[in-house]
Amino acid sequence: MRKHLAFVLALAMIMSLAAVPAYAAEEEKVLNLASESDILTMDVALTTDDYFIPHNVFDRLFEIKVQEDGSTEIVPSLVADYSVSDDGLTYTFQLVEGVTFSNGNPLTASDVKYTFEHLLTVPGACNYDIAQEVVGAQALLDGEAEELEGIAVEDDYNFTLTLEAANAGYLAELTSPAMSIIDQETVESVEGFGMEPADTIGSGPYVVSEWVPNDHFTLTRNENYWGEAPDADVVIMNVVPDANTQNLMFQSGELDIIDLDALDASIIDSVYKTTYADSIVPGYRVGVTFMSMNENNEFLSDVNVRKAVQMAIDRQSLLDNFYGGDGIIQNGMIATGVWGHNEDLEPIVYDPEGAKALLAEAGYEEGEISFEFSLDSSSGDTTSMVYQQIAQDLAAVGINVDIESYDESAWLDFRRTEEMPAFLGTWTMDYNDPANILGTFFSNSTSGRSLNYANQEIKDRVDAASSIMDDDERMAEYQAIEHAIVVEDAAVVPLYERAHLFCIGEKVESFVPHWAGFSNFFVRDVEMK
Amino acid sequence: MALFKSKKDVLSADLASQIGESEGMGVRLRRMARKNKLAVASAVFLVLLVLAAVFVPVLSPYDAVNGDASTRLQAPSAAHWLGTDEMGRDVLTRLLYGARISLAVGVVPTMISMIIGVALGVIAGYAGGKTDYIIMRLADVMLAFPSLLLAMVIMYTLGDGVMNIFLALALVGWASVARVARSETISLKETEYVQAAKSIGVKPGRIIRRHILPNCLPALIVLFTLNIPSAILSESSLSFLGVGIKLPNSSWGLMVNMGRQFLYNAPWISLAPSAAIMLVVLSCNFLGDGLRDALDPHLNNE
Amino acid sequence: MSTLKSVIRRILSSIPVLIGVVLVIYLILRILPGNAILTMMGEHAREEVVQQISAELGLDKPWYVQFWVYITGLFTGDMGTSIKYHKPVSELIAAYFPVTIKLSVLAALVAWVIGILCGVISAMRKDRLADRLGMGFSLLGISVPVFMTAMVLQYLLAYKLKWFPIQGTKEGLICYVLPAVALGWSSAGSVARLTRSTLLEVMQSDYIDTARAKGRSVSGAVVFHALRNAMIPVITVMAIQISSLLSGAVITETIFSLPGIGRLCIDAISGRDVPLLQGSVIFATALVIAGNLVADCLYSVLDPRIRKEG
Question: What's the pLDDT tens digit per position in B87-118?
């Protein structure tokens, strides 16, 4: 026993030594952040979620810039000059000269071409929608071609890109994180690009210096960066799965910016809107939260039932009670802040009596209608509360919904079968164009979303709209389509666009959130004290 | 792998001869009731809790599922003795409704695992040889898994729901019961009266029913009371990790889990069910100890 | 010589158990619904891609083909490739398990210290207030859910008093103290009970009387003689606790953001990453088996009675 005691004492001493903060002398500006889950890869071709590294370590041909008034604008980034042919098919680009990757390699037109090819051909590729629009992409995907026909490299800095079909929103699509330009030489020389910090070579403001899986990764400033240097020298992204823990860390100064999304409104109210009222930075989400209604479902196939569901949900009270009122009620799918948003869309009125009457008129008895309401258990506690409240609202008009929860992959798998009767979804825009959301959910190429939107005429119109080259005309068409989907067909219940709140700590002077409210923001938009 | 085997064999033989001959269970229980006040208090508490859970629709003016979201997270008051939760529901009401599921989760899987465990354990112990080897290796396999991990994997396979929790916890729990039942059986098999019964040609089924099972009973009752709390705790851990009871139903584990993000601004939501779990687990342990002292004086070493 | 033989025999007998573990977990996981590919690629993934990747990973083959590939791979240390992380499972486990080992060893230490202290105090003050308090404290540990203890400790000692880091492993061993205390306390109860009852038994035996006769105080006698004997069953109980420590590690690792095997399992489950889940559960179970083996051997070395029988 004495030996054991000695061991315990020794251990206690070691621990008290270790308690002295390891980082005493620091002159660097270190930005501490936290994320609920670790990234899986640093190669954007393999993920549609892990955008922090692509945003901060890589550059794109174009970027989106947030204006003073909150509106957004597409601005050239790696591109010095460009022109579009009259038929909207051919784009001629000239790259900014003198841009180098962090390893010193110059960024050239052939790297751009290689980026498109990598997106299409790397094993496990899943982020190639935008590259796929280029002529010859299908041949490359099918293994019938060696290189991408639609991109013609003239010299190091000039190239042309030809699309399969005209797409007025293509420049907007090029701002997507998926279109991050990679270094051909590096990617070709390593096996499994995107797994090792040393191989993750971009032209962006930061380089990845360390990655300890499920613990943290560290970005340090790219000394060769061609643009304006960012303010923070070092960025540490801590992986902290528990939102409470993040909350405690921020309050004790261990985090410099906290993403308030995972915290309950009551905590934001009682802690952040009081103690840190001046440090809250509201961001846009630029995306709508909606309730889906599968038109293959026995009851939901009836437009009267869908309209009754729309009327039975008290959207304002959901937003007020569970999200502290931080957001805007949406009556359509093209959310506030998205190009083409329609301020004058007919409002969906909360009217439980009207819903009851509508159901009675359509010949349903009270309690006759019931369907499953499927919850992705990884989507957070607040979401599950909203599910319960919606179930309660619907029960009040005689519709029984049964909340069934699945873990993330089972949920996605179920939805993919097209059989999921109803769910809550939030679609944050990948690029600022209505085509992004309408094309994903209501076009002929929509698959695996469990919506089964049946209106063939509208689906055809969604597909045709992207080739209308006149912007005003195109937006008018999208608004007409939106009206048909939400008002006439009542295909979904648009709920709200939630604000995305962040809170900054004492070390941060200012912070501009990502234009679409991504949690994976641009660190260059953070200014430190 | 068979820890304590030899020691328990010795003890159990001793125990069996004692129980076989000495005073009945009723007498022992009554004596315990006089001596062990803590065990009695625990039993009373558990009975009251069951009654409250059964009669909560009469006792409480509130609904367990539907709340008023505009009155969420209110502190304990005269109207809501334990405050309201994240959906504006009365915590006390939900606690008592939750007791139904939590107590069921304590009792039902434990019962199933007792039945499976005793059946397999007695068969293994009585038959010996290859049967014994196979059953006990299977038990070794089940016991080797960290129980929560195995339950988690099973729950993910089956999906959420009360029935699935019953099944998962029963599958995880039977092996330890089988071990005890086996060693009891082996020692009872060697006793004179069983040997005598065997020699006059009584069938094995009858011997097991008449002589072995009744004599295993005291040890099994004690094991039963002690396994209930671990089932309740397992359910709360599963709920914490996001698998288990379906919303908007409640179990204590689920309540703690939903309330944990309010630990710092509305602590009553998670502390009330935590306290309930703690009290039930303590009561079961005290009661189990009391029963052990009364029924099975030689087992109180472990 | 006979000790060595019995040790070898025990090691050999644990091999079928390990094979059984692999089989059981494999069969359970075959029924598992869900698609790992979808989770890996996220909300925006498209159908054709999903199918193409399933074929590349061999997930479209029948289960027995996959099982054969797995079992044969296991013998060469190949546990397959994680779908989620695109890395060999063995490599991931190697990177994550030191955290769990550190946490479990510290937690066992905590359980031991609390358990033995409470046990000794209770035994020496049998039926008095100290006895009740000692047993009460250790019993409370069993009764409070681990995550509650962990969250309260985190709030009070790390956040309010700032004695410990709130989460992570960046500051070294000190990061493990709170998780280990939360975890250890929940295992202390059984150690305390065992210590108490063994001590009571030993204290009534002859050689305590002898010690007393030699003029030593009773408490001195307890510490020097009784406790050493009492250690034998306590060691084995600790071995049994390995399983529950690993169970609890899943929870504490989540609350304190420690990158250990428990987190890996949760990651694997929520991502339907079957190779990773299989690998990490089998590994955790192998740890339990190894722990029991060591305890078994220790037991047979320390206690001559068992050796003779074994």
Answer: 788 889 889 998 888 889 889 999 999 999 99
Which chains have at least 3 CB atom pairs separated by less than 8 Å from chain B? A, C
B73 vs A contacts (CB less than 8 Å): 266
Q: Is the same domain home to A238 and A334?
A: no
Nearest CA in chain A to C176: A15
* Separation between Cα atoms, residue A484 and residue A482, nearest integer Å: 5
User: Pick from A18, A7, A13: which is nearest to C172 by CA?
Assistant: A18
Assess if residue A213 is contained within a domain.
Answer: yes
Cα dist from A525 to A58, A229, A367, C253, whole Å: 15, 11, 52, 33
Quick: pLDDT tens for A172-224.
899 999 999 999 999 999 888 888 899 899 999 999 999 988 889 999 999 98
User: What percent of chain A has pLDDT above 90?
Assistant: 57
- CATH code of the domain occupying B24-60+80-295: 1.10.3720.10
| Residue in A closest to C169 by C-alpha | A215
Same-domain pairing of A71 and A185: yes
Tell me the per-residue pLDDT of A5-57, one tens digit each, with 9 for 90 and over: 444 444 444 444 444 444 444 578 999 999 988 888 899 998 888 899 999 99
Q: Is the Cβ pair B246, A405 closer than 8 Å? A: yes
In a domain, A7, yes or no: no
A385/B86 CB distance under 8 A: yes
Regarding whether A381 and A318 lie in a shared domain, the answer is: yes
Please indicate if any CB of chain B lies within 8 Å of the CB of A395.
yes
Is residue A184 domain-shared with residue A79, that is, in the same domain?
A: yes
Residues of C (71-100) whose Cβ lies below 8 Å from A: 84-87, 92, 95-96
Final residue in a domain of this structure, among A151, A176, A199: A199
Q: Is residue A253, in this structure, part of any structural domain at all? A: yes
On whether any CB of chain A is under 8 Å from the CB of C247, the answer is no
Of C28, C139, C281, the CB nearest to B285: C139
Compute the distance between CA of residue B184 and CA of residue B121 in angstroms, rounded to an integer: 9
pLDDT per position as a tens digit, B191-231: 888 888 888 888 888 888 888 888 888 788 888 887 888 88
User: Helices then strands (H, E): number in chain A?
Assistant: 16, 21
What pLDDT is stored for residue A24 in this prediction? 44
Chains touching chain A at 3 or more Cβ pairs under 8 angstroms? B, C
Beta strands, E only, A121-157: 151-153
Degrees to nearest 5, angle at CA A168 with A163 and A173: 75
A215 and A142 both lie in a single domain? no
Looking at residues A264-283, what average pLDDT do you find?
86
User: Pick from B156, B248, B265: which is nearest to A267 by CB?
Assistant: B265
pLDDT value of residue A225? 93
CA atoms within 13 A on the CB side of A157: 13
Query: Taking the CB of residue A21, how many other CB atoms lie within 10 A of it?
Result: 9
State whether C173 and A15 contact (CB < 8 Å): yes
Asked whether the beta carbons of residue C86 and residue A129 sit closer than 8 angstroms, the reply is: no
Q: How confident is the model at residue B21 (pLDDT cuts 50, 70, 90)?
A: very low
Domain membership of residue A227 as a residue range: 206-283+500-528
Phi, psi of B202 (to 5 degrees): -70, 140
Question: What is the rounded CA–CA span in Å between residue A34 and residue A214?
Answer: 11
Q: How far is B205 from chain C (nearest CA, A)?
A: 30
Cβ–Cβ below 8 Å for C194 and B302: yes
Same domain assignment for residues A245 and A336: no
Give contacts of A263 with chain B, Cβ < 8 Å. Answer: 261
ipTM of the prediction: 0.80
User: Cβ A266–B262 below 8 Å, yes or no?
Assistant: yes
C140–A contact, CB cutoff 8 A: no
- Nearest residue in B to A324, CA atom: B70
pLDDT score of C38 = 56
* Category of B242 on φ-ψ map: left (φ > 0), alpha (ψ -120 to 50) or beta: left
Q: Where are the domains of chain B?
A: 24-60+80-295
Task: Please report the pLDDT score of residue A339 as a whole number.
Answer: 87
Is pTM beyond 0.95? Reply is no
Chain C CB contacts of A11 below 8 Å: 109, 173
**Predicted confidence (pLDDT) at residue B142 exceeds the cutoff of 80:** yes
